[in-house]
Amino acid sequence: MTAPLCLIAAGGTGGHMFPAQALSEELLKRGWRVKLSTDERGARYAGAFPAAVPREIVASATTARGGALAKLGVPFRIASGVLAARRAMKADRPAVVVGFGGYPTIPAMSAALTLGIPRMIHEANGVMGRVNRAFATRVDLVACGIWPTDLPKGAKGIYTGNPIRAAVEAYVGAPYQAPRADTPLHVLVIGGSQGARVLSKVVPEAIAGLPPEICARLSLSHQARAEDADEVSATYRAARIAADVQPFFADVPERLAACQLVISRSGASSVADIAAIGRPSILIPFAAATGDHQTANSRALAEAGAAVVLPESVLDVESLRRDIRAILSDEARATQMASRALSLGRPDAATRLADLVVELNR
Ligand SMILES: CC(=O)N[C@H]1[C@@H](OP(=O)(O)OP(=O)(O)OC[C@H]2O[C@@H](n3ccc(=O)[nH]c3=O)[C@H](O)[C@@H]2O)O[C@H](CO)[C@@H](O)[C@@H]1O
């Protein structure tokens, strides 16, 4: 008997592709076959997917740029994408189809709907994305990365959490070295898969103005976009603070485990990683995120006292410096924030997601 096939459809951003990858890995471990349906942008993130996962590239119909004529063609391109997905599904016969959100999932989710194939979606954020919302009541269930989330009436939501990658899992439960009066202090600054300009503008200045007894013990790992890196490095250098500035840290899990404080955007996977390893954080939600979902993503950590959330509207150098200083100078508070974060971690999210896929195949 051939192993059951799960078709995973994921849109073109890292935010959609990371959780899709985690589910693929878990299903392969369980002896399933997995196929990925994505667009050209998503394919750039697919390099980290297991080699055993074949890819089907769908046309980026709805993201096509151009004038009115090009836009007029969008419904036709979606329709032809759906027909192509139906043909592929009739040949592949997936047992279950899982959508992770984004426009490139429209063909696969529509085809699964019209063919009556068991299907679910995973929503990583505390506010549903547009495509996931459109399908939420037309799937068997919605696996939710953040809870509670704003499900439309009639949708069946199940809290799974957001899957973390194996490299993060390796540091779950790693002991937290709380900041003390004489210990080295390591601060990690991350802005999501693309980096975040606002963190490069405000964080180095806030850090450089900390009292000398803190600066002398500080070292930074600061993810900065290539175009901001020189300025970020120069500010730390002028304040004689050791700083490793890179456009992307391949070893974020290790740096997270080693830090006393993380300053971060509140993208779904970043929040999941911070909670899983259990570190105090200052979260700065991306104000322009659809439906302000990064604020929703940060809520549970904020309400539990695991994170301080600074909305961009009130973010300034002084307030950020005050918060950084308060956490790095208070061993008891930092320790409590770390353990509260850990209590919200869902290191078993990929397992839970895979369990749901298996149940849908019964
Ligand atoms: C700008 C934007 O719209 N971002 C969205 C995008 O997230 P985006 O892809 O920006 O960010 P996420 O926080 O979801 O994921 C970032 C991941 O990259 C890792 N990392 C980060 C920096 C680094 O140097 N190295 C590294 O490995 C983090 O640990 C994390 O695992 O999709 C998410 C899921 O839909 C949304 O919640 C975010 O709002």
TrEMBL record:
It comes from Paracoccus aminophilus JCM 7686. Residues 187-352 form the Glycosyl transferase family 28 C-terminal domain. It is found in: Cell membrane. Keywords: Cell cycle, Cell division, Cell membrane, Cell shape, Cell wall biogenesis/degradation, Glycosyltransferase, Membrane, Peptidoglycan synthesis, Transferase. One of its GO terms (cellular component) is plasma membrane. This is UDP-N-acetylglucosamine--N-acetylmuramyl-(pentapeptide) pyrophosphoryl-undecaprenol N-acetylglucosamine transferase. InterPro entries: GlcNAc_MurG, Glyco_trans_28_C, GlycoTrans_28_N. Residues 7-142 form the Glycosyltransferase family 28 N-terminal domain. Cell wall formation. Catalyzes the transfer of a GlcNAc subunit on undecaprenyl-pyrophosphoryl-MurNAc-pentapeptide (lipid intermediate I) to form undecaprenyl-pyrophosphoryl-MurNAc-(pentapeptide)GlcNAc (lipid intermediate II). The lineage of its organism: Bacteria, Pseudomonadati, Pseudomonadota, Alphaproteobacteria, Rhodobacterales. Its EC number is 2.4.1.227. It is a peripheral membrane protein. GO terms for biological process: carbohydrate metabolic process; cell division; cell wall organization; peptidoglycan biosynthetic process; regulation of cell shape. Belongs to the glycosyltransferase 28 family. MurG subfamily. Pfam families: Glyco_tran_28_C (PF04101), Glyco_transf_28 (PF03033). PANTHER family: GLYCOSYLTRANSFERASE, UDP-N-ACETYLGLUCOSAMINE--N-ACETYLMURAMYL-(PENTAPEPTIDE) PYROPHOSPHORYL-UNDECAPRENOL N-ACETYLGLUCOSAMINE TRANSFERASE 1. UDP-N-acetyl-alpha-D-glucosamine binds at residues 13-15, 125, 165, 193, 294. Pathway: Cell wall biogenesis; peptidoglycan biosynthesis. GO terms for molecular function: UDP-N-acetyl-D-glucosamine:N-acetylmuramoyl-L-alanyl-D-glutamyl-meso-2,6-diaminopimelyl-D-alanyl-D-alanine-diphosphoundecaprenol 4-beta-N-acetylglucosaminlytransferase activity; undecaprenyldiphospho-muramoylpentapeptide beta-N-acetylglucosaminyltransferase activity. It catalyses: di-trans,octa-cis-undecaprenyl diphospho-N-acetyl-alpha-D-muramoyl-L-alanyl-D-glutamyl-meso-2,6-diaminopimeloyl-D-alanyl-D-alanine + UDP-N-acetyl-alpha-D-glucosamine = di-trans,octa-cis-undecaprenyl diphospho-[N-acetyl-alpha-D-glucosaminyl-(1->4)]-N-acetyl-alpha-D-muramoyl-L-alanyl-D-glutamyl-meso-2,6-diaminopimeloyl-D-alanyl-D-alanine + UDP + H(+). CDD domains: GT28_MurG (cd03785).
